[in-house]
Design a protein that fits this description.
By secondary structure, the protein is α/β, with parallel strands linked by helices. Helix content is 41%, strand content 24%. It is built from 11 helices and 15 strands. The strands form 3 sheets. It has a 6-stranded mixed beta sheet with strand order 5-4-3-6-7-8, sandwiched between helices. A 5-stranded parallel beta sheet has the order 12-13-11-14-15, with helices on both faces. β6, α3 and β7 form a beta-alpha-beta unit. α4 crosses α11 and α5 packs across α6. The chain is elongated. The two termini are 12 Å apart.
Length: 369
């Protein structure tokens, strides 16, 4: 993810994908025009990268020139199109191919057609690397299209946001959800995870999503997802990952304007971690870190046995059950530790000390995200 001025952008189209699209456009145009020498005209400023790469890939003789039009202010296409630099050569009976970096509303294209009405060209062909069909509102034919994309603002490969981003070899898409801090919080039984989650959600104004709480809420309120989950539970079966993900998705949607989320109790497996990544990506966001409270086993056993004196939970009173719970935790989190470490997103924090000391350690990790 990158930040330009005040906005965040996520990776969208790689340089390799762009190269393949440009090559195909060059090959298709060359095949259609045969031995004719066309005049390629780039629309400045955005098309300078495209034109440079395109003419190097074009396998036959050609001529190249530019015109400059202005149609963007910030991230919005405007109705006011101005012709800043015009043509200086005679194009009578020549095949002209307009090379556009992107066509969205079609306002610029309308001005291009107006410009060439009196140039007496043999034919005017339009080739665009990127095309937004959802935004296009004109009737002009587009003869060659590199890639169709959704109607979201992009930067890179000649395209900019208020002057920045043109130099990027890849293309990035505007994040409709701006910067969030999303954390997967882990800790073995007795590590104090619930206590820390409450402090962190207050300090960073995050939404705490506990899988257990979400399940109980949905089942108690007899939601469609709750009833579906209960049908599996009643049969002694595991609730499918997709049901859990759908519940979490509802929670995220309910808090779309949040500064971020603390996920507690999910994911538990690689498949769930990947599903959570996909969920957040669909929200134009991502998991920033898995933060795990690390506590020695003997300290955990002592804590839980002490807690069992007042909690009333039988699994807090039996040492063999406690040790098995701890063992199960490590068996599950070892896989997730590898998953998030591979993304440089795993952070361990010492979970021994006062509540305040542990909160400071966790905050040190979060403040660096």
């Amino acid at each position: 993810m990158i930040k330009l001025h005040d906005l965040y952008f996520k990776p969208f189209i790689s340089a390799k994908e762009i190269d393949i699209a440009v090559q195909k456009m060059a090959d298709d145009i060359a095949a259609d025009l045969g031995d004719e020498v066309p005049v390629f005209i780039g629309i400045l400023n955005g098309s300078f990268m495209l034109v440079s790469d395109f003419v190097k890939k074009y396998p036959k003789a050609c001529e190249v020139t530019f015109i400059k039009l202005a149609s963007y202010e910030g991230v919005k296409s405007t109705e006011d199109i101005q012709r800043l630099i015009g043509l200086t050569q005679d194009l009578t009976d020549r095949t002209v191919v307009i090379l556009e970096d992107i066509i969205d509303s079609g306002n610029t294209l309308e001005e291009v057609h107006r410009i060439f009405e009196n140039e007496n060209v043999k034919q005017l062909l339009i080739a665009t690397l990127f095309y937004k069909p959802e935004a296009y509102s004109k009737d002009f034919k587009l003869h060659y299209i590199g890639k169709e994309i959704s109607d979201k603002f992009i930067v890179g490969y000649g395209l900019d946001y208020d002057g920045l981003g043109r130099d990027l070899p890849d293309v990035y898409q505007l994040k409709t959800t701006q910067h969030m801090t999303n954390i997967v919080l882990f800790g073995p039984p007795g590590a104090g995870k619930g206590t820390q989650a409450n402090f962190l959600k207050e300090k960073y104004d995050l939404i705490h999503i506990s899988t257990g709480d979400v399940f109980r809420y949905n089942i108690k309120n007899k939601t469609a997802l709750g009833m579906l989950a209960k049908s599996f539970i009643d049969k002694g079966e595991l609730v499918p990952d997709q049901v859990t993900i759908d519940m979490l998705n509802k929670e995220v949607e309910k808090n779309a304007d949040a500064n971020g989320f603390i996920f507690d109790g999910f994911p538990r497996t690689n498949a769930q971690a990947k599903a959570l990544d996909e969920l957040m990506d669909n929200k134009d966001s991502q998991i920033d870190a898995m933060v795990a409270l690390e506590v020695d086993d003997e300290v955990l056993v002592k804590r839980l046995l002490e807690r069992g004196k007042t909690s009333g939970r039988p699994d807090d009173a039996d040492e063999s059950i406690i040790r098995n719970r701890i063992k199960e935790y490590y068996n599950k989190t070892a896989i997730l530790k590898d998953y998030y470490s591979a993304q440089n997103k795993y952070f361990g924090a010492d979970g021994v000390g006062s509540i305040e000391e542990i909160t400071v350690r966790l905050s040190t990790v979060i403040d660096k995200l």
